[in-house]
Amino acid sequence: MSLLDGTPIPQLGLGVYKVDHDIAAPLVSHALRNGYRLIDTASMYENEFGVGQGIRDSGVPREEVLVATKFWMDDLGFENTLKAFDKSLKLLGLDYLDLYLIHWPAPKRGLLYVDSWKAMEKLKNEGLIRSIGVCNFHTHHIDEILKVAEHKPVLNQVELHPWLTQEKLLEYDNSRDIVTQAWSPLARGKILEDPMLATLAEAYGRSVAQVILRWHIQRGVAVIPKSISRERIVQNINVFDFELTEQQMSEISALNTNLRTGVDPEDRN
Fold it and tell me: Residue 81 maps to which CATH number?
């Protein structure tokens, strides 16, 4: 798939949420050697150094890897965002970032995220970032950015899984050519015990995780499943050689209860 600015992005990548940096390095290398080309990290994960090391150790050319990171709420604001970017780039050991994201809008802090957006646009215009986007943004948060944006957000990374299908947000993003990317696409592993999904997975000879990831893929959603298991990392990317029926897609979507495993963005400040 491609971002609004023309940058190609893999629909499935590796998330490394709170993976220790010394573990992150070999896991990232393993993932890249097994076909992954998107690695998603964040300053809050405290593993950017390990991610950068893993990319270098993999032997995969830097230009083939899309590296995404995010800055935390404490770094909202124009100058703070510039400083946070410099720190992340240094820890990663890179010359540029492929994708830089606002981690949370923190709306109770006002419109600091809009000031951050202007800083990100500056970095993009200077060639230090290829693409800029947001995480955990409701539609009205994106509307505030669009009022002043020189460069529109190309990606919105949100909690999304069969218990939280985010229909209205997905429709909004699609109408503005914003890629929706799911964090916690497996509901932090809690949904893997669902009996209907287990039966469906057995019918396909797949894992429940593979069935759920395939559901995301067919919805046009990008995914960044996390795993510290080398076997599951390989398993998770092998979801492009089978297809769910329309009825099966609907049955999975019907599991929606608007249940969040994380915090609502309006409450994260």
Answer: 3.20.20.100
Asked, for residue 65, whether it belongs to a domain, the answer is yes
Q: What is the 3-state secondary structure (H, E, C) of the chain?
A: CECCCCCECCCECEECCCCCHHHHHHHHHHHHHCCCCEEECCHHHCCHHHHHHHHHHHCCCHHHCEEEEEECHHHCCHHHHHHHHHHHHHHHCCCCEEEEEECCCCHHHCCHHHHHHHHHHHHHHCCCEEEEEEECCCHHHHHHHHCCCCCCCCEEEEECECCECCHHHHHHHHHCCCEEEEECCCHHHHHHHCHHHHHHHHHHCCCHHHHHHHHHHHCCCEECCECCCHHHHHHHHCCCCCCCCHHHHHHHHCCCCCCCCCCCHHHCC
The size of the chain, in residues, is: 269
Q: What are phi and psi of 34, to 5 degrees?
A: -115, 30
Q: Is the pTM of this model over 0.85?
A: yes
CA 174/CA 198 separation, integer angstroms: 30
Range of the domain at 92: 14-189+219-239
Catalytic residues: 45
For residue range 124-165, list pLDDT tens digits in order.
999 999 999 999 999 999 999 999 999 999 999 999 999 999
- Residue 15: CB atoms within 10 Å: 24
